[in-house]
Amino acid sequence: MDLNSLFGFIEAYVQCPTTINRPFLPFQQKNGTLIFPTGEFVGVYYSKELKYARDLGYTVIPISGYLFEKKESPFKSFISSLFKSHLEAKKSDLDLVLKAQKRRSVMKIAASICRGNLISSLENCLMRIPMSFPTMTSKALIPGTQ
After folding, report:
1. What is the pTM of this model?
2. What is the DSSP track for 50-75?
3. Which residues fall within 8 angstroms of residue 52, CB to CB, at 6 or more apart?
4. Pairing between strand 39-46 and 59-67?
5. pLDDT digits (tens, 9 = 90+) for 80-98
6. Most exposed among 6, 11, 91, 128, judged by the fewest C-beta atoms under 10 Å?
7. In what order do the strands lie in the sheet with 59-67?
8. What is d(CA 24, CA 36) in angstroms, rounded to the nearest whole number?
9. Do the Cβ atoms of 65 and 8 come closer than 8 Å?
């Protein structure tokens, strides 16, 4: 059997070169200890792991396994619609933020214009206020005095 045509979980005879410093495929010993050995061993692995190990220099000989046909995910349309909704929501949130920023900028400009007009109006008003006050006559506050 050619490893390239297989897709699924495969029991395989594996030879790991002793020159590999950090072996890739794990192996569980009978006592439950998980090791990453060099040398020869038999284990069950996912087909993509075995293909990657082969690319690293391992020798892989498939023995048996559970093979699957590659099919398109039954959830693909559902996931695509969720992703599209997410993007639309993100875009509408961005639009709301931009609108709020524009509104804020317009309000700041309007406020600065109003402040400027208010200040110039106050300056005009201050100029119109007469600077001379009517003279006050002093009157006696206590009757009978002066």
Report:
1. 0.51
2. HHHHHHHT-EEEEEEEEE------TT
3. 24
4. unpaired
5. 887 787 777 777 776 777 7
6. 128
7. 39-46, 8-16, 59-67
8. 7
9. yes
